[in-house]
UniProtKB/TrEMBL annotation:
Single annotated GO MF: zinc ion binding
Species this protein is from: Littorina saxatilis
Gene Ontology biological process terms, A to Z: fibroblast growth factor receptor signaling pathway; positive regulation of DNA-templated transcription
Name of this protein: Protein Churchill
Family: Belongs to the Churchill family.
InterPro entries found in the cross-reference section: Churchill_sf, Transcrpt_activator_Churchill
One Pfam family it belongs to: Churchill
Keywords: Activator, Developmental protein, Metal-binding, Transcription, Transcription regulation, Zinc
Amino acid sequence: MCNDCVKEEFPERDTMCLETGSYLVNYAGCNECGGRDILIKNRIVSEDEDELITFQHVCLHCEHIVANHEYSFKVVEEFQEYEMSCLLCGNGEDSRSIMPCDPRGPQS
């Protein structure tokens, strides 16, 4: 992971949890070659009881590793739990009821 390739390390993304894609607003450019294009490589999906997706954000031109991205999804009792952690895309987590009406009431 490269702190110099991002504008802000692990920005807070509230409930935003991405299982694919890149948060390009936070990409300063490749510190190695100056390139502005990024791609996803080494994507691994593990689906045991929980779903875990990991991949790397990599410079298209020199293959410099910008960040490692981790996304998880699991069901805990009556809720779907999502989490994301990535130097480029940031940290986020969300919880949604699997019931038609959320017993916690409306979420803001």
